[in-house]
Design brief:
By secondary structure, the chain is of the alpha/beta class. It has a domain of about 90 residues: Nucleotidyltransferase, domain 5. The strands form two sheets. It has a five-stranded mixed sheet with strand order 4-3-2-5-6, with helices on one face. Strands 1-7 form a two-stranded parallel ribbon. The longest helix has 17 residues.
Length: about 150
């Protein structure tokens, strides 16, 4: 008995299942890693209409000081007292030519706490102090424009 003739058909469909699996794994990895990329501590920044862009604050070696609403002070991710801040900033700026420090103050932090931090940073020999803020979201007006 002769063998049946087999016809070899070429399938031109793309099998997307492996691609979907890889994309889901990448999505999970990015969802887990992204929160860890934030430098320092989380602070609710003051919102302004005309913030000045400070791209240098995002650099890896940028010096960030955070003032929490309860008055706690963080230099990077380490909690320090106001008295320790001057020495720690001096130590960090010893080998740097760019003597710039950025302050992330909570919107509800006491003004006196922020002034004390700025004063201690200036005592360490810092040339420039940057105050980080957030862009206020524009409000959409529901009123009709005035007739002309």
């Amino acid at each position: 008995m002769p063998l049946p003739k087999r016809t070899m058909e070429v399938t031109s469909d793309i099998n997307v299942t492996p691609m979907v699996d890889v994309m889901l794994v990448l999505l999970i990895i990015f969802m887990v890693i992204t929160p860890m990329l934030q430098k320092g501590v989380s602070v609710e920044l003051a919102k302004t209409d005309n913030p000045v862009s400070m791209k240098d604050a995002d650099q890896e070696d940028a010096l960030l000081v955070a003032v929490m609403r309860d008055g706690k002070i963080f230099f990077g991710s380490d909690q320090v007292t106001a008295d320790q801040l001057t020495e720690k900033v001096k130590d960090r700026l010893e080998k740097k030519t760019d003597k710039r420090v950025f302050i992330k103050a909570d919107a509800r932090a006491k003004y006196g706490s922020v002034v004390e931090v700025v004063d201690n940073i200036r005592s360490a020999g810092v040339d420039q102090v940057g105050l980080l803020t957030e862009q206020r979201k524009p409000t959409v007006s529901t009123e009709a424009p005035p007739p002309q």
